[in-house]
Every structure is written in C-alpha cells, then in structure tokens.
Fold this sequence. Notes:
Elements: H1 6-20, E1 24-28, H2 44-48, E2 53-55, H3 60-72, E3 76-80, H4 91-96, H5 101-105
Parallel strand pairs: 1-2, 1-3
Amino acid sequence: MSVVTYLEAIRQGLAEEMERDDRVFLLGEDIGAYGGAFKLTDGFRDRFGADRVIDTPISEAAIVGAAAGAAHMGLRPVAEMQFIDFIACAYDIITNYVATARYRAGL
C-alpha cells in the first residue's frame, strides 16, 4: 500500500468517484480555474469539464444550498469550503433546510 497525504487521498477519491459516476460534481470558491486554495482540484476542470467543477461566489450559504438542492434532485455534489471558519455561515441552510426537508417536502 502506498503512503499518501490526506490531501492526495481526497484528491484521488474525488477523481475516482467523478470517473465512476457522472452525477458527481464539485462546487466551491476558486476550485475550477485556480484549482482550490490548497490545489486539491488542480487540473480537474480540464479533466472533467466546467459543468462538473464549478467556481462559486464567496458565499458558503449559497454553496451549501446549491449542493443540498442538487442532492435532493439526485445528483452527488461535493461542496468545498476553503476554511472551516466560514462553515457557520451555512448553518441556517443545514439546520433549517437540509435537516427538515424530509418532513417538509418528503425528500
């Protein structure tokens, strides 16, 4: 078994799932053209296309909300947050929408 960094393991796992399942896509700040803050997705846009590696505005709530909506429609989004410090900006979406969607809409 090869020894890899956490970053490389995540990168390999994402690439493997994106190759296996066309429903998997990535969305986040600067992940397309720039390759992400830590270069995790460097080259992914060329490899998988701009429709599956989506640069978003700086809005964690919008990223999580878009990912939640896509998941409810049967897609497999991977929402990338550059830094954990900003995930609290998306708590409203997580607690008031994602966590209750099953009861409100049967999703």
